[in-house]
Amino acid sequence: MKPKPIYVEIEVQDDVEKVWKYTQQPKLHEQWDLRFSSITYNDKLPGENMQTFTYSTKVMPGIQISGWGESQGTHEKASGEKTSALHFGTEQLLSPIAEGKGYWKYIPHEKGTTFLTQYDYDVRYGVLGKWVDRLFRPVMGWGTALSFDVLKRWIEAGESPKTQYRRFFAFYAICFLFAFVWFYQGLVPKVLTQHPLEISMLTQLSPLTAAQGATAVIWIGVAEILFACCWLVPKLQKPLLKLQVIIFPFLTLSAIIAAPAVAIAPFNVITLNVTLWILSIIGLLLHEQLPTAKSCKRKRGKAA
């Protein structure tokens, strides 16, 4: 079955001309659109209506995908509604996209502008490419929606895309750091090794014997691994940050009570937990103004 085209729609509280400007001028477009690192218009020949351009996308340091595009014309209705049709593609084999077509539509209304896009593309590598596209297409849709929300915030609030993306990636870097810390602390010193210090601290704070403490440490480690996995669920990240702001002082205090010597060890529980506590607070502050793909409609007629 042929996959559905990617559809993204967002409401922008500003007039059509401003939305048109921020999406049609290459130097503005490349700032908010996560899918492109640079966009360059080619010179038009005399009497030519079609606008050609080249684009590039940095996949990772040292790896870049370049392609071509054609703006096949713009159409404006008496109501002020505008449409821009696009044809795009790339010859680079690293890209799963071979060639595609789509359009941008700008619909004015009393409160601003409905800005939407729909596009589809052909993949390379046959059946293998179609299987890869089952993962790639949702990522493209998500990236488009996130970019639209960054554009909306830029136009409405004046906050630059660079600042928004810096906040976005800093927030998720913190979340992935917490996932790693909890996973490692659960797996290595508890599940795999049952470190003597872990057992000692637990038995000091409870009536458990050493043997019982060793078993309990394993189960605590499993719980911490599950807790680490929760950090990968976007809906849970803000509640988890709030939880950590509350529990880290108590975890630090209980560790010192159970084993006072840990407070003077190199890279000890105090320095670790205080660092993670402060990062939790920073994460909460970053989350308050985080751009999100959820601001967009992803299907026609569906709520955002």
SSE order and pairing:
Layout: E1 6-12, H1 16-24, H2 26-32, E2 38-41, E3 51-60, E4 63-76, E5 82-89, E6 97-109, E7 112-123, H3 126-157, H4 161-192, H5 196-204, H6 210-230, H7 234-258, H8 269-287
Antiparallel strand pairs: 1-7, 2-3, 3-4, 4-5, 5-6, 6-7
Transmembrane segments: 169-188, 208-233, 245-264, 270-290
Keywords: Membrane, Transmembrane, Transmembrane helix
InterPro entries: DoxX-like, START-like_dom_sf
TL;DR?
The chain has 304 residues and is of the alpha+beta class. The protein has eight helices and seven strands; from the N terminus they run E-H-H-E-E-E-E-E-E-H-H-H-H-H-H. A hairpin with a 5-residue loop joins strand 4 and strand 5 (82-89).
Keywords:
304 residues; alpha+beta; 7-stranded antiparallel sheet; 7 strands
Walkthrough of the structure:
InterPro entries: DoxX-like, START-like_dom_sf. Keywords: Membrane, Transmembrane, Transmembrane helix. The longest helix has 32 residues, at 126-157. The protein has helices spanning 16-24, 26-32, 126-157, 161-192, 196-204, 210-230, 234-258, 269-287, and strands at 6-12, 38-41, 51-60, 63-76, 82-89, 97-109, 112-123. It is α+β, with helices and mostly antiparallel strands and 304 residues long. It contains eight helices and seven strands, in the order βααββββββαααααα. A seven-stranded antiparallel β-sheet has the order 1-7-6-5-4-3-2. Helix 5 packs across helix 6 (210-230) and helix 7 (234-258) packs antiparallel against helix 8 (269-287). Helices cover 51% and strands 22% of the residues. A hairpin with a 5-residue loop joins strand 4 (63-76) and strand 5.
